[in-house]
Write a structure and sequence with these properties.
25% of the residues are buried. By secondary structure, the protein is of the alpha+beta class. A five-stranded antiparallel beta sheet has the order 1-2-3-4-5, with helices on both faces. The protein has a two-stranded parallel sheet with strand order 6-7. The chain has one domain.
Length: 198
């Protein structure tokens, strides 16, 4: 047997063995990853909605809505995911709104790949020792109509404004752009569901 044939056989065996190990490892880790994802999703829902007893889950036009309700069945808020492009890549968020979509009740960043130390401050800002979560917390109570706008180096003076992160204006504006696009679409989709039920 030639040296080339031996090399091909050895490489084929190594590749097959490596593939088998990776496949078995994936089947072992996939359920744990999915469980972790679901736990993170539930935590994000509880972060963005006002206090509720339970939530109903309904998918409309490919978007899943989590409707928070009291024990008596009164709707206190609606949560859904918002995704879009940031400075470095996709930003994924869970956003909560009042039942009429007139105010944001909370915002939680689920995933992002923004520049560490700059754009990543949309999740937590280590330079703000008193409140590292100030960026997402400022969205609570913001009015999304006609649209959310960004102000730089000053406190917001209108209910539709949020303050950009110093040195990460693009990431701040990306979050706002994603919210402006998604909330409007989600409102229309949710209205379809309400119309079908009634």
């Amino acid at each position: 047997m030639s040296t080339s044939a031996k090399m091909i056989i050895v490489l084929t065996l190594i590749a097959t063995l490596s593939g088998g190990i990776l496949a078995s490892w994936d089947s072992f880790t996939a359920p744990r990853i999915e469980q972790h994802r679901l736990e993170a999703l539930k935590e994000a829902i509880s972060e963005v909605l006002p206090e509720y007893d339970h939530y109903d889950e309904k998918t409309v036009d490919g978007r899943t809505f989590y409707t928070g309700k009291t024990a008596k069945g009164q709707t206190v808020g609606i949560a859904f995911q918002a995704k879009g492009s940031g400075f470095q890549g996709e930003i994924s968020m869970m956003v909560g709104v009042t039942p009429d979509f007139s105010k944001i009740t909370g915002l939680s960043i689920l995933a992002q790949v923004e520049t560490p130390g700059l754009g990543s401050k949309i999740v937590s800002d280590p330079t703000n020792k008193q409140n590292p979560d100030w960026f997402t917390e400022q969205f609570q109570g913001v009015t999304p109509e006609p649209e959310i706008t960004v102000v730089k180096n000053q406190k917001p003076s209108k209910s539709t404004q949020i303050q950009a992160i110093t040195g990460a204006t693009i990431s701040s504006k990306s979050v706002v752009k994603i919210l402006n696009n998604t909330i409007e679409q989600a409102k229309a989709e949710y209205a379809k569901e309400v119309k079908q039920v009634s």
